[in-house]
Structure formats: structure tokens, C-alpha cells
Automatic annotation (TrEMBL):
Pfam families per the UniProt record, alphabetical: TRM13, zf-U11-48K
Alphabetically ordered keywords of this record: Metal-binding, Methyltransferase, S-adenosyl-L-methionine, Transferase, tRNA processing, Zinc, Zinc-finger
UniProt record, GO biological process: tRNA methylation
Protein name: tRNA:m(4)X modification enzyme TRM13
Length: 408
């Protein structure tokens, strides 16, 4: 997000700052009349409670209720797609210098290029892209959909679609909505069939497109009896047993546009941990983002990271190196202020300075290491027919790398 000229922070971090200031004032407050003290709730420190009422509060805290909302659902299996947590807590700043040296050496030897394949889906260009003033999201969706078609992930036939779709980290399900439109516009109306969209997100989203998917279908097919099924599940992907929702007679595509940080790793593990999904999988399309919130605990391929450390004879531990990688990744995507030039010198550690362009380049190297480890794991565990590509130019989005898998 951008920040106002008179503000030190963007709106996102300004809200966090206000919350911290509010907590400082609120937590520790004394009730002089009754001798009580206010403390942060251990389940959610964003609010506080009187210390002598803590036990009672924990049973009715909204955070407690949310954490147990799926306890009796068949699709809930706690931590099914997560890994046991490592215990090492580090101050990444102590290791940045050594990690930067490794990345600079890695960059010199790296010959792998992630190709730019910005495609345009004809149906989507006609029905959506050309109608918008701000086209960036539509261009991204159009390219992802056409790349899925080019990689034989989507089976769009004039005689009807034979797939169902699972959108991980779906948010409002905008990606599924426009995918649905493309499928219907590519299909003879008389041959259209109801499609099931499994929409997975842990948040409560406003302005959802669930009903739009249904109304779009009926408008395009001109058939009121054609009604897609919307199966929205509010759950953390780490706890998702998706096989319980699937049909053995269908095939599936797992997809997501901007699947944030660790959610990509959890999704890939979810696919492998659910035998029916893996067996009936036609393909995967995940546009990845936010490597700065990846987790060393849940990263899908720690052996890839350890191999790099071994290659450069480093004494850093996996957690130390990976944690620094996630910090450096943000250098590729935090953008430049209008008063910055590529050749401006910035201090990245107390002992290392570089140009803004060099810092961005190093961020891309860190991001590529995380993504190529994912690609390597997918090739070994899901399908050899797997690729990384830049689905739009960086002028459209700085987060522009997608993982595409055709499951054979």
C-alpha cells in the first residue's frame, strides 16, 4: 500500500501502530477500586481481559470459538498438512551478512531463467479486460487461465466441461468466477453442465462472488436449470481433509491467484496428503506471493535449502538461512518511492551497502530459491510435467510467478 505524504506509515501499518498504542494504554491498566489488573488475552493479544476473569473469558473468547469452529466437521483434521514446529528462534539480523554473501555467489552461478509467458484469453479479453479502466487484475486472471489451457490443465471442450475446481485461499472467489465465465463461453450452451467450485479460505470474506458464479452461469447458458454448486469451507489449509468433499467420478484442478506465503506449501502438502485428490488431479495453477511470510517449519522442501548451504560450505542452520531468505524476498517487491533511482545506494546491513537495483535483484534470487525448491518437490511428488513461469510483466504485478502442473 502507498502512504500519504504527511504520514510515516501506509494505512495497513498505521492501523497496526494504532492498535499497539491502544494495547499499551489498555493492558496493565489498574482497577483501583477493586485492585484488579488488565492483561492481554493469551489467545489473542489484540484485546485484553481482567486478570481475575481470565479463566471464564477463555471459554467464551471469539478466538477460542473460531479455533474450534470445525471440530465436528468431517473435512477437519487438525494439522494434517502442517509439520512439527522447530524450536529455534533467531534474530535474523545476526546472519544477514553471511546470507547475502551466499546469495551473491549463488547468483553468479545461476543459469535457470523463469520464462515470461504473459498470455491473453480471448473470451476474457472480450468479456472483461476491454471493459475495465484498471485492467491489472483482469490481465493477471486472463494470463493464468490461458496458461492453464496451454499446459493442458483445463479441459475446455465444446461438448461440456468434465472438471471441478478447488480454489485455495479463495478470498471473494473472483478467480473462480472468471474461470467459470471462460469455461461457459467456450462451451455450447446445450452441453453445459453444473460445475462444483470448492472455495477454501480461513477468513470471513465480504462481497463474495459465490452468487455471481451462479447468476453468471444462468445468464450465459440461458438455462435456469444449470446451477453450479458452491462448496465454501472456512478453514485453515493446514487442517483441511479435502477428500471428504470430493467425488470419485470427477477430476479436479487446484488453483489460486496470489496464495500467500506458507499457504502455498500447505496447499501442496494437502494435495499429496489426500489420496483421492492426488489420484483425480488434472493439474495445479498457483500464483504465489508474499514469500516474506513463508515458514521454515512448513516449507515444503527444506532439503533444497540444506543442499545450498552444503554447496557453499556454510555453517548456517536451515532455520537461520531460510528466515533470512524470507526477509530478503521483500526487497524484490516493496517497490520504489517516486524519489528513488535504481543507482541510489542503500545500507542493507551495518557493513553492506548496495544500489537499489542490486537489492531488488538479490530479493529476486531469494524468491527464486524458495520457488525452485517447491518446483523440485512437486516434480518428485506430483508430476514431472511442472513449470515455473512469470505470467505477467513486473509492470502489471511485482508478484508475478506461477507454478503450473499438468498431472499425467
Amino acid at each position: 500500500m502507498t502512504r500519504r505524504a504527511d504520514s510515516e506509515y501506509c494505512s495497513e501499518h498505521l492501523n497496526l501502530l494504532k492498535k499497539d498504542i491502544g494495547n499499551e494504554k489498555h493492558n496493565g491498566r489498574l482497577d483501583s477500586k477493586n485492585g484488579r489488573v488488565r492483561i492481554p488475552c493469551p489467545l489473542d493479544p489484540n484485546h485484553s481481559v481482567w486478570e481475575d476473569q481470565l479463566k471464564k473469558h477463555l471459554t467464551k473468547c471469539n478466538k477460542f470459538k473460531l479455533s474450534h469452529i470445525n471440530d465436528n466437521n468431517i473435512f477437519y483434521a487438525k494439522d494434517m498438512n502442517s509439520c512439527p514446529h522447530l524450536t529455534e528462534n533467531i534474530d535474523y539480523r545476526l546472519y544477514l551478512d553471511k546470507v547475502i554473501e551466499i546469495l551473491q555467489s549463488y547468483q553468479k552461478n545461476d543459469t535457470f531463467e523463469i520464462p515470461l509467458k504473459q498470455e491473453a484469453n480471448e473470451e476474457m479479453v472480450q468479456s472483461r479486460v476491454n471493459t475495465l479502466t484498471n485492467q491489472k487484475h483482469a490481465i493477471q486472471q486472463s494470463s493464468l487461465i490461458q496458461n492453464m489451457i496451454n499446459h493442458d490443465i483445463l479441459y475446455i471442450s465444446p461438448f461440456g466441461n468434465t472438471q471441478d475446481y478447488i480454489e485455495f485461499g479463495c478470498g471473494k472467489a473472483e478467480f473462480s468466477r472468471y474461470l467459470n465465465q471462460v469455461i461457459l463461453l467456450s462451451t455450447e450452451s446445450k452441453d453445459a453442465r453444473p460445475i462444483t467450485y470448492h472455495l477454501i479460505d480461513r477468513a470471513s470474506n465480504r462481497m463474495k462472488f459465490d452468487t455471481k458464479i451462479i447468476s453468471d452461469t444462468q445468464e450465459i447458458t440461458k438455462q435456469s436449470k444449470i446451477k453450479p454448486r458452491i462448496d465454501r469451507i472456512k478453514i485453515d489449509i493446514k487442517d483441511l481433509k479435502i477428500d471428504t468433499q470430493l467425488n470419485n467420478d470427477r477430476t479436479y484442478v487446484a488453483l489460486s491467484k496470489h496464495l500467500c506465503g506458507v499457504a502455498t506449501d500447505l496447499t501442496l502438502r494437502c494435495i499429496v496428503n489426500n489420496p483421492l485428490l492426488k489420484q483425480k488431479l488434472d493439474g495445479i495453477c498457483i500464483a504465489m506471493c508474499c514469500r516474506h511470510v513463508c515458514s521454515a517449519n512448513d516449507y515444503i522442501n527444506p532439503e533444497h535449502i540444506k543442499a545450498i548451504l552444503k554447496e557453499f560450505d556454510s555453517e548456517l542452520t536451515y532455520v537461520q538461512f531460510f528466515t533470512c531468505l524470507t526477509k530478503i524476498c521483500s526487497w524484490a517487491t516493496n517497490g520504489r518511492r517516486s524519489d528513488m533511482n535504481a543507482t541510489d545506494i542503500v545500507e542493507v546491513t551495518p557493513t553492506i551497502s548496495m544500489t537499489i537495483e542490486e537489492r531488488e535483484s538479490l530479493g529476486l534470487v531469494a524468491r527464486k530459491i524458495i520457488d525452485t525448491g517447491r518446483l523440485q518437490w512437486v516434480k518428485q511428488n506430483i508430476s514431472e510435467d511442472s513449470h515455473l513461469l512469470r505470467y505477467v510483466d513486473k509492470s502489471i504485478s511485482l508478484e508475478n510467478v506461477a507454478l503450473l502442473v499438468h498431472s499425467t
